[in-house]
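Self-study notes.
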Amino acid sequence: QVQLVESGGGLVQPGGSLRLSCVASGRFGSIAAMGWYRQAPGQQRELVATMSTGGATDYADSVKGRFTIARDNAKNTVYLQMNSLKSEDTAVYYCKAVIIVPRPVGYWGQGTQVTVSS
């Protein structure tokens, strides 16, 4: 059984920063990729940033230059540093991990709310 637990969301003013964390736990062989998605009210879930085990990254155009994804493979943890936050970044942020169990399976966290407002 695999579990992803996110933390770090909250309320921040425009221009502020937050750091999200997500830890994967359970019995599994390895993690192929970890990343972050977000879903705003009335909108579809969208990719924010992902990182492979080898370090390759992919970012949504809307967050490039402001958000940074990082992984600690030894701790099965992925981080999302969010700087220069805007009101349009307000959403529920979900962690996703593609885990080899032994075939690749995607797992989602429960989500953490990020609200950018003055």
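Second protein, same conventions, sequence then structure:
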Amino acid sequence: QVQLVESGGGLVQAGGSLRLSCAVSNLAFVNYAMGWFRQAPGKEREFIAVIDRVSSTRYADSLGGRFTISRDNAKNMVYLQVNSLKPEDTAVYYCAAGQSTATTAERFPFWGQGTRVTVFA
């Protein structure tokens, strides 16, 4: 059974940084693109970033360059570095695996359970 497990969320003051991690198992990780999405309370799931097998990346234009996605194929891990956090970044953050560098959630068949990030002013 494919498993994606996010970690690294928590409570952080505005202006701070977090590094979210996603551990992937039972999947040919190197063959998959990995994405990060988030869902704030009362809002739809939002694309943040995606990284392909050779670490080419795409980011949501609206997020202002504060997010950096990376992966370690040897460890089956994908990361999301988030800097200059704002209260509006409060959300559950999800990693997902798919076979293209899509930006829509429907293109990713495998998902983790999410890690919650709460940013206070």
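Instructor comment on the second fold: The first strand starts at residue 3 and ends at 7.
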